[in-house]
């Protein structure tokens, strides 16, 4: 399963922190950001993903996050 999100993560340092956080919660997943994209895309690939939990984790850390259609 792959989930794709629009975020407001702007800096590489922020993305590294969010990747650490997400991989701690979803340890078998691949997580990456495309900060060059206008939507600052977050992609999470793996089994047993919960899109709502991913959104909550980013929001708890001060970032906007929504599923990208």
Protein traits:
single chain, about 70 residues, alpha+beta, Alpha-Beta Plaits, four-stranded antiparallel sheet, 2 helices
Mind explaining what this structure looks like?
A four-stranded antiparallel β-sheet has the order 2-3-1-4, with helices on one face. The chain is of the alpha+beta class. The protein has two helices and four strands; from the N terminus they run βαββαβ. The two termini are about 15 Å apart. β2 (about 30-35) and β3 (about 40-45) form a beta hairpin. It is globular. The model has no long low-confidence stretch (mean pLDDT about 95). The protein has helices at about 10-25, 50-60, and strands at about 1-5, 30-35, 40-45, 65. Helix content is about 35%, strand content about 30%. It has one domain: Alpha-Beta Plaits. The longest helix has 14 residues, at about 10-25.
The percent range for strand residues is 25-35%
- Helix-and-strand structural type: alpha+beta
Widest β-sheet, arrangement of strands: 2-3-1-4
CATH level-two architecture: 2-Layer Sandwich
Q: Roughly what is the average pLDDT, rounded to an integer? A: 97
Total DSSP helices = 2
The Rg value, from CA coordinates, equals: 11 Å
Helix content: 25-40%
Q: What is the H/E order?
A: EHEEHE
What is the CATH level 1 assignment?
Alpha Beta
Distance between the termini: 15 Å
Number of strands: 4
Tell me the overall shape: globular
Low-confidence stretches: none
Largest sheet: 4 strands, antiparallel
Whole-number tally of structural domains: 1
How would you name the oligomeric state of the polypeptide chains in this document? single chain
CATH topology: Alpha-Beta Plaits
């Amino acid at each position: 399963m792959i989930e794709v999100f629009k975020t407001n993560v702007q800096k590489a340092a922020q993305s590294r922190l969010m990747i650490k956080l997400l991989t701690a919660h979803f340890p078998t997943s691949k997580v990456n950001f495309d900060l060059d994209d206008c939507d600052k895309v977050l992609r999470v690939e793996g089994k047993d993903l919960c899109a709502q939990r991913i959104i909550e984790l980013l929001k708890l850390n001060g970032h906007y996050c929504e599923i990208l259609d």
